[in-house]
């Protein structure tokens, strides 16, 4: 895998505890060791990517680093029997873009066990319109299903509903026939029409979501997908129906959780963590097949507002960390 041909990548470096970013010209020789070389077509911008580029949250601990926790593209070279030149692949998770070089590059050298063959019915662009956010949303829906939360049981609440994970969760749940309530932050009331088009039928908000609840509040939700954590998750727990389930996958509002055992022992509520980073390969394949079937293409187009280039990433990263991004941002590595 040696070539002097150059290609572009966004590279993070650190000096005096300050993170800098620049688009650099690299060769394959500059890439880390891996058994598959991929020509990257697309990546995407996730909240974690924004934090990495902005140098907040200690997402990246080793430098230099190419961020980007997602990528899709075509195999150029392979030392693995699992893949051959020309295969279309998608990669999410495995600490890529954090501990290992990620997707904001036109060529990536990766481990074959991190890859998933492109799902039938999808192209590389569609997989990155979905990306880690959509993959995580699907895992959350599957978690609720495993807990017995079916559409006839009651309303499912989605917190952080206008974000990447939340938007796709609303769309999947809506397409499966669930009644969906969307929690949006103050000032995001202008997203209600957008979320209604994806499948939300009820909207939730108010100052109480910034306050700690009583140990038990009025029962409202049979299921919930929580991307926020902290006080929001505390209130969701207190408002769960008997035998309800929460799938938690995020901490946009903080990693703390103040609660009591009362929702668990008096209402039989379950709180289940959802991790997309180290998710086993067989479950990944199931989730991607489900996404191809259960996520409407029309909804996906609405969720992805635009495609951006490598040079657009720093400004977009600042926007997503500040909560100014609705839905998903696709990163076109050839734009």
Q: How would you sum up this structure in a few lines?
A:
The protein has helices at residues 47-54, 124-146, 164-175, 192-198, 230-238, 262-266, 281-294, 297-303, 313-321, and strands at residues 7-15, 18-26, 36-45, 70-78, 88-92, 107-110, 116-117, 156-159, 180-183, 200-204, 221-226, 240-248, 270-273, 304-308, 328-332. With 335 residues, it is α/β, with parallel strands linked by helices.
Describe it for me?
The chain is α/β, with parallel strands linked by helices and 335 residues long. The protein folds into two domains: 7-118 and 301-332, Alpha-Beta Complex (Quinone Oxidoreductase, Chain A, domain 1); 131-273, NAD(P)-binding Rossmann-like Domain (Rossmann fold). The chain is 28% helix and 27% strand. It has nine helices and 15 strands. The strands form three sheets. Strands 3, 4, 5, 6, 7, 14 and 15 form a seven-stranded mixed beta sheet that branches. Helix 1 crosses helix 9 (313-321) and helix 2 crosses helix 3. The longest helix is centred in the middle third of the chain and has 23 residues, at 124-146. It starts with 6 loop residues before the first strand and ends with a strand. The model has no long low-confidence stretch (mean pLDDT 95).
Characteristic key phrases:
335 residues; alpha/beta; Quinone Oxidoreductase, Chain A, domain 1; Rossmann fold; 7-stranded mixed beta sheet; 9 helices; 15 strands; globular
């Amino acid at each position: 895998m040696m070539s002097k041909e150059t290609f572009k990548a966004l590279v993070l470096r650190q000096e005096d505890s300050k993170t800098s970013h620049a688009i650099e010209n690299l060769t394959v020789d500059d890439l880390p060791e891996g058994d598959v070389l991929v020509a990257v077509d697309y990546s995407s911008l996730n909240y974690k990517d924004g934090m990495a580029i902005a140098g907040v949250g200690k997402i990246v601990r080793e430098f230099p680093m190419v961020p980007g926790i997602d990528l899709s593209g075509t195999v150029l070279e392979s030392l693995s029997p699992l893949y051959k030149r020309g295969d279309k692949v998608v990669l999410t998770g495995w600490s890529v873009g954090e501990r290992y070089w990620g997707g904001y590059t036109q060529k990536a050298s990766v481990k074959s066990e991190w890859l998933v063959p492109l799902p039938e019915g999808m192209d590389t662009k569609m997989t990155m319109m979905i990306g880690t956010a959509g993959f995580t949303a699907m895992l959350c829906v599957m978690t609720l299903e495993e807990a017995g939360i079916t559409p006839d049981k009651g309303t499912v609440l989605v917190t952080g509903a206008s974000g990447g994970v939340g938007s796709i969760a609303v769309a999947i749940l809506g397409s499966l026939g669930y009644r969906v309530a969307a929690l949006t932050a103050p000032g995001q009331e202008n997203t209600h029409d957008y979320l209604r088009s994806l499948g939300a039928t009820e909207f939730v908000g108010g100052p109480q979501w910034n306050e700690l609840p009583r140990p038990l509040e009025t029962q409202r939700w049979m299921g919930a997908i929580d991307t926020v954590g902290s006080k929001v998750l505390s209130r969701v727990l207190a408002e769960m129906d008997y035998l309800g389930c929460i799938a938690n996958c995020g901490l946009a509002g903080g990693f703390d959780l103040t609660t009591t055992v009362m929702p668990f022992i008096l209402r039989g509520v379950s709180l289940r963590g959802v991790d997309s980073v180290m998710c086993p390969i067989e479950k990944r394949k199931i989730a991607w097949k489900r996404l191809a079937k259960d996520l409407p293409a029309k909804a996906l187009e609405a969720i992805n507002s635009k495609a951006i280039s490598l040079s657009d990433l720093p400004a977009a990263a600042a926007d997503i960390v500040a909560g100014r991004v609705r839905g998903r941002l696709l990163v076109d590595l050839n734009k």
